[in-house]
Every structure is written in structure tokens, then in C-alpha cells.
Amino acid sequence: MIAEPTRVLVVDLNNFARYPTVAVGYLAALLRQAGIGVEVFSPLRFGVPGVAREPRETRARGLLRRLNYELEARPGPVATLARAARVRAPGESRRRARLLDRFERALDAGYDAVLVSTYLMYHPLCVAIGARCRDRGVPLLLGGSYFSQEEVGAAWLDVPGLVGLVGGEVEPHLADLVRAAAGGEDLARFPGVSTPGGGRGPACPPLRDLDRLPFPDYSDFPWDSYPDRIVPMITGRGCGWGACTFCSDVTSTVGRTFRSRSPGNVIEELAHQARRHDAELFTFVDLKLNSDLSVWEALLGRFQGAVPGGQWIGAVHVGARQPNGLGRRELEAARAAGMVRITTGLESGSQRVLDLMRKGADLGESGRFLRDASAAGLSVRVTMIHGFPGERAEDVVASALLLERHRRHIERVSLNRCQLTIGPPLLSRLRALPDGPSDVVDLRVDPRAAQASHRYLPADDPEYRRATRRLLDAVSAINRRPISPSARRFEGVM
Ligand code: B12
Ligand code: SF4
Radical SAM core domain: from which residue to which, for each copy (predicted)? Predict the structure, then answer.
């Protein structure tokens, strides 16, 4: 008798309503390459969108941002209640019920294993999915970008039906892992895998030869549900700078250490995906697209050859170290190559705070970049951090001033309260501090979410609060401006 080929269902809980998920594209391609049958369960197909990113700015949104700041700066019963009210957003429980109902129906098709790729905020959903897998006797594998942190992974091992939690770049042995899961074997021998029984495979080293991977397969995504056909691309893993003390991107599963694909392999994929999906819009999800200058230069010189008339966006790090690939001429070349929007982590207008962050940035160089990128016709988006330990009222004023001064050069600002996350040195250092005077108090670590709630004492200073209001005003003033027509198709994407 010939054995039936293994069939699996891959569930995408990174679900983003604008383009497919890179991880799921890789999983599907690798499994199919190994002869395993794959179906992808994308919640968007059933009208369940992911978290909305940067919707259009309105006066009400500006006010909401203020309110959020007030709440987040003050952990306590009122803030907890208000946050709970936000979590129970209208329609949320209906969408969840629909998703679980569809998932149950999907299980009727009979799979040998279910693979879920998830963000940490979906723990309750994973528990519900797991319970359904357990009831049907289908083994569940969970993976995602944050499970490489041991403390975080350990807090997820209670998901029902789970046979293995995956926190590594498991591409080389993915097919064996899935077959072993389907066959009911113990998975603790596989690198990067933990099991509910307390087993733990050896460490899973970062993947070196990225050119050997197949191109991600996005054919299962609900292309008709996206407002535009945008294809995600990743040219390398990790960040060429990699030193910022707050950055959980470089402690996430694939972020650890920088590795790049070759320019030729990247250009080949661009042409392939454009053909395959009849697409001309690309978003590069690299943490720092100018990490490997040979790849960055290949995009400037060869993107249009691969995708004639195409457009693209990406994030760069404006480091003080030269060359950073972001001179006036290169920015003009990027625009000519179809780049329409560029994102960078500006983080602070205070050089002192940037140095505390180990951002590797110089305010003079950042200002020059903002002017040149905008003059080149690029829509500039920046991210900023508020409440970084050590930040004082004058630093917040400096951030507001930086935005005010560059109002004409910046089109969107994403301002974030400093997050303390498991992985980066910032939180590890705070946790290692002996009890005693510190600016950061009421530290409560939630390993399941990889976050630590906290209170930043200087934020109670009236001067600091005044400075924060000025910063929020500067953010709102920029975000209310209409986006450049050339970048409009990417609004809200990054
Ligand atoms: C691109 C990106 C986005 C994009 C696209 C997301 C998408 N749906 O594709 C956008 C900009 C929309 C986005 C949004 C958000 N993101 Co995001 N994002 C990233 C980023 C930079 C790259 C992701 C990526 O494509 N990586 C490449 C792939 C190949 O790696 P991977 O996902 O880790 O998958 C590999 C392995 O983990 C493994 N794997 C993954 N899943 C599974 C499952 C199984 C079963 C197996 C066997 C293996 C496996 O296989 C893959 C190949 O090795 C990561 C940072 C990072 N370094 O990964 C953050 C990151 C994933 N995002 C993060 C966050 C917090 C968010 C937001 C919540 C931010 C916000 N507040 O708005 C939103 C939420 C979006 C949503 N819908 O839920 C966090 C996740 C933390 C967490 N809580 O889980 C990360 C790690 C950043 C960080 N350091 O904080 N994001
Ligand atoms: S430059 Fe960006 S991606 Fe790189 S370490 Fe700093 S914050 Fe993280």
C-alpha cells in the first residue's frame, strides 16, 4: 500500500490586511518543495483583518493618542479598566467567533498537523485553536518571531494540543519536523523546538546561506481582499547595525545577527513575484535595507529592470558611520528606481538620548538625510520613541523641535512610548538592577506577551508633561498632512 502524502494546514496569525505574510510564504514553499500538501488558513479570507496600522490622521485620533499616553504612563486601576474597554473593541468577539467557526470547518478536511504562525498578542486565540486541534487529535505546532526567547516560549507551552513550540530558523529541517509531528514522535530532538513535556532541542543557529531557500510562495493568500497587490520582500535577516539597546527586532527569531541574500538572488525574486502575482508594488520588510550596500545599490540600479514601472518602499538606518548609502545622489537614484517612501527610526531629537540608546546616529546627518530624501521626492516616514529611560523634559522638547524644524520634510511620524520587551539589553539591565532608586518603577514583566509594564517617574514632572504635549502637537500637525500622491498606494502600509 502506498502511504498518503502528509497534509498540513498553516494558520496565519500575523494576518495583515495589506499584503501576505513572509513567514507563511516561506513555510508553504519549503513544505511543498518537500512534497507535503499545504493549505493556508488566512483569517482575512473570512473578513477578519489583522491589527490596523497607522490609519489616516484625524483630530479625534490626535486626541486618542493623548489619552493613550496618559493611560500608559499611569499603570493603575483606572488605566487597566480603560485598557480592558479598548481590548473589547466592538465586533472583536464576533470576528473571533467567525474565525474559530471557519477554522473548525477547515479541520473537517482532515489534516495530519496544524501549523500556526503567530504574534504574541494572540495567545487566547491560540488556546482556542489548540483546544479544537486536541479534540480532533490533530497535532499542533506553534511558531513565530518571538519564540526564540526562552522565557517567552516557556510561557506558551500550556497551549492545548501543542506538540512543539518552534523558536528558530528551522528551514533546513522543517519537513522532517512536520512529518515527525504528524507521526506522533517526540520533537525535542529538533533544533529550536520545545515540547510541553519540558523537552528542548539544541539551539538553532542563524541560517547562513539564504540564497539556498526557495522563493516564498504567496499563492494561497486572498489577493482579491487587499486594496492593492503589494508583495513583501526580505533581502536579509537581522540588521547591519544591531546595537540599539531597546530593539527587539534584533533579538527576534530571524533578527539575531545580520545575514544577506546576494543581490542577484533578490533581483531574481523581484522579477519572479511580479510575474507570479501580476504585481508592481513591493514592500521591503528588512529592518535596515541599507545593511548590505551591494544589495541596496542593486535595488537602485536594477529594480526597474526586474519590475518595469514598479514602486517600492523600505526602512533604512541613517547611521553616522559612512558610507551609509544615503547620500543625496543615492536618494535620487532610489526615487528614480521606483522607491516612493522611506522609513527611518529617528527616535529622538536629543543627541544625548540617541547615545544612551546606542542608536549610532548623529543629528546633523539625520537632518541632512531628511532634507535630501524629501528633496529627492521620497515620502519620508519616521518613528520616534518617548519615555526612554534617562530622557528628561529638555530631551522631549528637543524631539518636538526636530519635528517642527523638519515639518516640511517628514510626511508621517509614528510615535511610540518606550516599550520594555524581553530580549533587548534595556529590560535585561533594568531587571538586573538591585532594588533601589530608579527612574523606572512598578516593573511588571509578562513573559507571555514579552512585555514589561512600568512607570517612568520623570514623566510625572509638569515640565515633561508640557514637553510631551508639544511633541504630540508636532506629530499631529505632520500626520494631518495629505500624503504625496506618489506614495498614496502605500498609505498605512509602513
Ligand atoms: C514585517 C513586519 C511586520 C509587517 C508585516 C507583518 C506581516 N503580517 O507580515 C507589519 C509592518 C504589518 C507588522 C505589523 C506589526 N508587527 Co511586525 N514585524 C515585522 C518584522 C520586521 C519582519 C517579519 C518578517 O517577515 N520576518 C521574516 C520571517 C521569515 O521571519 P519570522 O516571521 O520570524 O518567521 C520565521 C521563523 O520564526 C519561523 N516561523 C514563523 N512562524 C512559524 C510557524 C511554525 C509552525 C514554524 C514551524 C515556524 C515558524 O519560520 C520563519 C522562517 O525562519 C518583524 C521583526 C523580525 N525581525 O522578524 C516584526 C515583528 C514580527 N512585529 C512585531 C509587532 C509587535 C508588530 C505589531 C503588533 C506592531 C504594532 N503595534 O502595530 C504589528 C501587528 C500586525 C498584525 N497584523 O498582527 C513583533 C512581534 C512581537 C510579537 N508580539 O509577536 C516583531 C518581532 C517586531 C519586534 N521586535 O517587536 N510587522
Ligand atoms: S537600527 Fe533599527 S533594526 Fe537596527 S538595531 Fe537599531 S532599531 Fe534595531
Answer: 225-460
Q: What is the DSSP letter of 166?
A: E
Q: Which domain holds residue 155?
A: 7-51+90-194
The model's pLDDT over 3-20, given as tens digits with 9 standing for 90+, comes to 678 999 999 998 878 999
What does the longest C-alpha to C-alpha distance in the chain come to? Answer: 78
Distance 114 CA to ligand 2 centre (A): 33
Which CATH number covers residue 129? 3.40.50.2300
Which is the closest atom of ligand 2 to the Cα of 246? 7
334 and 476 housed in the same domain = yes
Strands 451-456 and 420-421 come out as antiparallel
Confidence (pLDDT) at 82: 63
Ligand 2 in reach of 287 Cβ (< 6 A):
yes
Give the pLDDT score at 64.
76
Q: Is the peptide bond before 323 cis (omega within 30 degrees of 0)?
A: yes
**What's the CA-to-centroid distance between 252 and ligand 1, angstroms?**
9
Q: Ligand 2 test: best mutation among 234, 235, 237, 244, most atoms within 8 Å of CB? A: 244
Give the DSSP H or E segment for 259. strand 259-260
Dist. CA 119 → ligand 1 center (Å): 7
